[in-house]
């Protein structure tokens, strides 16, 4: 298993990615086609920046990636189409950047682990719910979502909530994840935002997602 993990570390250095986590998003996108040319992407909890790098390469020069994190992210070798915001995601307002809604929300966020699997799991799920709380305001109808979560007793409830907000959703564990890791990635497509004007919290039907440009493959 050690050799497998060293492989991803070596590949990240060879291809210029900030961390081996880049290959998790690459595999997810290769299989599910989350990112398309020209997309506007929010990377929540973006440090050290490898998901920003992957997303920027895949959305191309007409796309844009906004990376937000409490930690400062080094701009060195970061594509020009990436904007980095240092701050608390709970205080983030896309309109400050003259953005209405994003095409894709990405989150590789995780709580600082304490060695208590039960507590770490619930803190991870809470981060996911906080992102979903903002999804109807931040993500356009028909948009896509990828977010990391630690597996545990509240994982199924989280999946059920995601299923109510998207046309398609599924848990996925990439090959680049460590075998012993409890991390999973919730992959969701076709956002159906909650209509806040309705007391019944009905969802707005999602329009069909535009097809990627011919020849797109990242």
CATH topology (level 3) name:
Rossmann fold
Number of domains: 1
Quickly give the structural class: alpha/beta
- Tell me the number of helical segments per DSSP (H or I, 4 or more residues long): 5
Order of strands, widest sheet: 3-2-1-4-5-7-6
- Total strands: the figure is 7
The rounded distance between the terminal residues' Cα atoms is: 28 Å
CATH class wording: Alpha Beta
- Just name the CATH architecture: 3-Layer(aba) Sandwich
CATH superfamily: Vaccinia Virus protein VP39
Q: List low-pLDDT spans.
A: 197-218
* H/E series: HHEHEEEHEHEE
Q: What can be said about the biggest beta sheet? A: 7 strands, mixed
Helix content range: 25-40%
Using only C-alpha atoms, the radius of gyration works out to: 17 Å
Mean pLDDT over all positions: 86
Strand fraction equals 15-25%
Write the layout of secondary structure elements.
Elements: H1 2-15, H2 22-32, E1 40-44, H3 50-59, E2 64-69, E3 82-86, E4 102-107, H4 117-138, E5 139-150, H5 155-165, E6 166-172, E7 183-191
Parallel strand pairs: 1-2, 1-4, 2-3, 4-5
Antiparallel strand pairs: 5-7, 6-7
Polypeptide structure, described:
- The protein has 218 residues and is an alpha/beta fold.
- It has helices spanning 2-15, 22-32, 50-59, 117-138, 155-165; strands at 40-44, 64-69, 82-86, 102-107, 139-150, 166-172, 183-191.
- It is 31% helix and 23% strand.
- β4, α4 and β5 form a beta-alpha-beta unit.
- Mean pLDDT is 86; it is low at 197-218.
């Amino acid at each position: 298993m050690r050799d497998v993990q060293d492989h991803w570390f070596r590949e990240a250095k060879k291809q210029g990615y900030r961390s081996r986590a880049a290959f998790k998003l690459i595999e997810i996108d290769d299989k599910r086609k989350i990112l398309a040319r020209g997309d506007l992407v929010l990377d929540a909890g973006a440090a050290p920046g490898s998901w920003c790098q992957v997303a920027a390469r895949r959305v191309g020069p007409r796309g844009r990636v906004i990376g937000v994190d409490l930690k400062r992210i080094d701009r060195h070798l970061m594509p020009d189409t990436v904007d980095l915001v240092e701050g608390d995601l709970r205080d983030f307002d896309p309109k400050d950047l003259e953005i209405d809604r994003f095409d894709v929300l990405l989150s590789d966020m995780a709580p600082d682990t304490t060695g208590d699997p039960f507590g770490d799991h619930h803190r991870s799920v809470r981060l996911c719910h906080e992102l979903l709380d903002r999804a109807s305001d931040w993500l356009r109808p028909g948009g896509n979502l990828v977010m990391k979560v630690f597996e545990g007793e509240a994982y199924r409830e989280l999946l059920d909530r995601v299923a109510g907000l998207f046309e398609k959703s599924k848990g996925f564990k990439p090959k680049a994840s460590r075998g012993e890791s409890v991390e999973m990635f919730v992959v969701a497509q076709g956002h159906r935002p909650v209509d806040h004007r309705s007391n019944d919290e009905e969802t707005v039907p999602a329009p069909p997602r535009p097809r990627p440009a011919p020849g797109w493959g990242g």
